Amino acid sequence: MADINIHADTERLIQSVQFNCDLSDREFAADYTICIYLIRMREYYRWVHDIAPNLALDQSTLMDWVTNKEADWAAMQTTDYLPLNWKGQEYSVFDVQSINTFLRPQGLVYSAGYGRFSKPVFMLAELESFEQNRHYSLTIAGKELARELAAPPATLQGQEILIRSEAITRMVWDLYEEWQWKKPDNAMAEVVNIYDFERRPMRALKRASLDQQELLILHELGELLAEDMLSDAWVKLLSTDNKHQHLFARAVRDYLADCFSTLPGLLAEDNVPALHFYFASLTPMRKAMFPSLARSYQQWRETGAATQTSQGIKQAIVQGQAHWLKIARRLLTDFEQENPERDMSMQAYIEQYAL
Fold it and tell me: Mind listing the pLDDT tens digit for each residue in 116-136?
C-alpha cells in the first residue's frame, strides 16, 4: 500500500466526505430506535476519539458529546451532498469507481451507496488491499478517516465487495461485550473459549476479526450468487419504504447467500471458530426465520462440533437453498403484482415463511 500523504487535497476530501456522512446521519438518525441510536452513538464516539474498545467511557462526557453532535447536525444549512474534489476535478458523490481510480494509488479507498431503508452511507479509509478478477473485485479497508453512524462491516455494489476491517473489529467486540452481561452458554460462549477472550481479550479480538473477514467475504460472494438467481426487480424490492418487507427481504437474501456460499465454505474449510461465530451473530429475527438451522447447530455443538457430526447442518443448508430461493421469488411476485400480502407484519412474514 502506498504511503498516505495528508496534503491539502486529501484533507479537503476527508472534510467533504465527513460532511456528507454528517448530513446523512442528520436526515436518518430518527429512523433508529432509541436503544440502537445510543449504541451507535457510543461506538461512533469511540471512533471519533480513537478509544480502544476495552476502555471504559465516562458516561457524562459521552452524553455531552452526543448533545453537541446533535446540535451540529441541527445547524447544518443544506440538504445537498457535497461533490468531491481532487486536484481541481469535481466528482459526483456517488461516482465511486472514478473516485477510487485516483485514490487507490494514494493508498485510500472511498465508498458510497445506500444502506437499510435507502440511507446514504459514505466512508473514506486507508486501503489495506485490492484485488480484481473477471468475476468480482475485493477491497479491504483499514483505518477509517471519515464515516458515519451506519458502519456495515461488508457491502456489495454490483460486483465490488468492500470489507471494512475496523467495522468488523467493532462488531466482534460488541458481541463479546453483550455476552459478558450474563455469560450464557451459547454460540458466543464457544467463541469466547476458542479465542481465549477472557484472558487475552485484545489478542483474541485481533484473531477473531481476521476470521470474520473470511466469513464476510464468503457471504458477499453468496450475495453475488443470490443476485444472479433473482430478477432486476429485487433492487426495487429492497428500496421499498415498507420496513417489515424491506427487513424480511434482506434477511431472505442473506440466507440465500449463506446457504449457497457462507456455510458450505466454512464447512469445506473446517473453520469451526467461524462457524460458531456465524451462529453467535444471528439476530433473534433470523433465528426465528430458520429454526431448523439453529437446531442443527445446537445438535452439532452438543456432539463436540466435529466435522463428521455436521451432517445435520449440511442437510439444513440444502433445504435452505431450495426454500429461500422459493420465498425470494414469492416476495418478488407479491411486490410486482402489489399483492396485499406484501404489507404483512414481520411476525406474519416469519410465521408464514419460516423453515
Answer: 777 899 999 999 999 999 889
Shortest CA distance to 245 belongs to which of 131, 115, 334?
334
CA 44 – CA 65 distance, rounded (Å): 11
What pLDDT does 196 receive?
95
Number of Cβ atoms within 10 Å of the Cβ of 210: 13
**Dihedral through CA 124, CA 175, CA 273, CA 309, nearest 10?**
-130
Return the closest-CA partner of residue 186 out of 287, 256, 263.
Answer: 287
CA 103 – CA 278 distance, rounded (Å): 33
Helix (H) or strand (E) holding 156: strand 154-157
For residue 108, list its beta bridge partners.
126
Task: Supply the pTM of this predicted model.
Answer: 0.90
Distance CA 275, CA 296 (A): 12
Band of residue 345 on the pLDDT scale cut at 50, 70, 90: confident
> What gap in Å lies between CA 166 and CA 151, rounded to an integer?
9
Amino acid found at 56: A
Q: From CA 111, how far away is CA 132, in angstroms rounded?
A: 17
Q: Are 297 and 315 in contact (CB under 8 A)?
A: no
Given a cut of 80, whether residue 4 has pLDDT beyond it is no
Residue 237, C-alpha cell as written in the block: 424490492
Number of H helices, E strands in the chain: 15, 7
- Which amino acid appears at position 222 of this protein? G
Amino acid found at 306: A
Determine the Cα–Cα distance for residues 340 and 338; give it in Å rounded to an integer. 6
Alpha carbons 259 and 319: distance in angstroms, whole number: 9
3-state class (DSSP) for residue 244? helix
Distance CA 69, CA 75 (A): 10
pLDDT (0 to 100) of residue 246: 84
pLDDT at 236: 83
